[in-house]
Recover the amino acids of this structure.
């Protein structure tokens, strides 16, 4: 009978008629189900503390409630500690360094490296292979060059260089070989190939060197004139001057006509751009100029809507003002209106600009422009590029 009473006390933590002289038992603590990993941590902690591991026995009626509660608290503490440790954010791995060294401005080496890194966007975007680039321009003596090489060796960097002076380039090559640094000479191989092709030795002087003079040539003034013309002809201004342009761009709003025009102007081309707006008549001059000068731009409607929404927001337009400009129905209608205009002028090439950089679109336009100008054999333009 005594054994049965003891069992009831352990099971319910109460008695039918409690004695007021007896201390009030502690409330029952819900037993947590521990994971196997948590059990291993608990056993390891007990062993480090010098405690003897004991298993609870269902037949051992002499185990006290306080002892069980203490174990539960220890397990809760361990679980809290393990949760905190699991929530610690991982520190991202440091980027692998790339040293870019030039005896000039560094434009060539920097753009070459960036072009190569473009092949690893799938890795760089989510930071699975981070990269840190460092540009060292104007390195025109061996002593400074060797300091950079030593620092690159300490950091385990990739050493990329464009050194016009062959002796400097050879010094960089030998030093990298001595220190075990991976290196790439961007300028040397192509310079040697051109020298062999022309049968003339290169000057070995970087851009801007004292020994190289750049007089104000006709090309320089032509570029200045092209930029001034393009700025005045932006967004359909002065349509009477369209015949003076080398290139005419047309397309709906936010297809990149203005930045593309400025980029081409810096290369010496006079560019005019004419926007296509639904319900607004296009200038007659657009259809009177040489059609081989005109290039049409189009874009994906979803991308266009996103760009227009961002543009309207940056200008502070309200929702009502934005609705007619960035709503998908209107965007599709305007693109369809532009498509019909392009179809009526099949000589105009239609260039898809979705996902293209300004430089990529400009490269397509210039290729077509020069092919037409030189009358290269090519099929009649009637498709998108």
């Amino acid at each position: 009978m005594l054994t049965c009473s003891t069992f009831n006390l352990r099971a319910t933590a109460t008695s039918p008629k409690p004695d007021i002289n007896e201390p009030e038992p502690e409330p029952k603590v819900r037993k947590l189900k521990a994971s196997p990993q948590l059990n291993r941590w608990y056993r390891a902690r007990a062993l480090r503390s010098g405690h003897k591991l004991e298993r609870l026995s269902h037949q051992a009626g002499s185990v006290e409630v306080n002892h069980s509660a203490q174990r539960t608290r220890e397990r809760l503490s361990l679980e809290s500690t393990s949760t905190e440790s699991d929530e610690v954010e991982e520190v991202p791995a440091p980027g692998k360094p790339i040293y870019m060294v030039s005896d000039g401005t560094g434009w060539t080496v920097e753009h070459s490296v960036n072009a190569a890194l473009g092949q690893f966007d799938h890795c760089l975007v989510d930071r699975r292979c981070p990269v840190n680039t460092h540009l060292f321009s104007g390195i025109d003596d061996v002593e400074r060059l060797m300091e950079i090489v030593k620092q690159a060796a300490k950091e385990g960097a990739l050493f990329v260089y464009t050194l016009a002076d062959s002796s400097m380039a050879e010094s960089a090559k030998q030093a990298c070989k001595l220190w075990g640094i991976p290196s790439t000479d961007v300028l040397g191989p192509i310079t040697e190939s051109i020298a062999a092709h022309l049968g003339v030795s290169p000057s070995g002087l970087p851009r801007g060197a004292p020994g190289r003079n750049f007089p104000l040539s006709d090309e320089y003034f032509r570029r200045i004139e092209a930029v001034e013309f393009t700025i005045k002809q932006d967004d359909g201004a002065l349509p009477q001057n369209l015949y003076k342009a080398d290139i005419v761009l047309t397309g709906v709003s936010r297809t990149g006509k203005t930045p593309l025009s400025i980029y081409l102007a810096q290369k010496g081309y006079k560019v005019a751009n004419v926007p296509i707006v639904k319900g607004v008549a296009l200038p007659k001059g657009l259809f009177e100029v040489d059609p081989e000068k005109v290039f049409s731009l189009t874009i994906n409607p979803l991308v266009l809507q996103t760009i227009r929404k961002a543009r309207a927001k940056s200008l502070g337009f309200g929702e009502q003002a934005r609705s007619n400009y960035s709503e998908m129905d209107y965007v599709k209608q305007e693109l369809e209106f532009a498509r019909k205009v392009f179809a009526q002028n099949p000589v105009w090439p239609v260039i898809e600009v979705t996902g293209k950089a300004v430089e990529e679109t400009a490269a397509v336009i210039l290729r077509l422009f020069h092919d037409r100008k030189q009358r290269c054999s090519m099929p009649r333009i009637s498709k998108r590029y």
